[in-house]
């Protein structure tokens, strides 16, 4: 059976690059996005697109096929305002996507991974999780990425003994071709993490400028 990879938050940059990389490695890839029609030109052989909203936990979970071997969570949300201008509502709405959506997706795949005794969960992190002062208007995103990194590292410790690899790829700069943050280079890191052998699972790969 052809292994399946689901990329949540499919779009230009990391999402499409990861989908291409796993498709080239022999996976059937499903890219989930709020408006998949906008990204149809990015899809290639082995990549199908479907609609799902990371802000809708039940809908997101229902869109993930059974038997998914690799889950990539690349969705995010940000209300751009400095920390003092954020409100409980903006922080909660963004956190619901940045961390809550990831948890909904993980909850959808984890029972099957546990039955199989294997699987990979990869979460797209950001440098703001390490230095939230780097871009103060992205305060809500920084809080979300810090929470997502905590989730990834905690899941790594919990699930590795079960043969399930949870990890984060922390991208500390603007994604652009031909830079240290080239999306194809970053995508190689996702596939590399998936290929880590049991007993040698890495928890994080960090891209810095």
UniProtKB/TrEMBL annotation:
Pfam family, one: adh_short
Stored InterPro entries: DHB_DH, NAD(P)-bd_dom_sf, SDR_fam
UniProt xrefs under PANTHER family: OS08G0476300 PROTEIN, OXIDOREDUCTASE, SHORT CHAIN DEHYDROGENASE/REDUCTASE FAMILY (AFU_ORTHOLOGUE AFUA_5G14000)
Protein name: Short-chain dehydrogenase
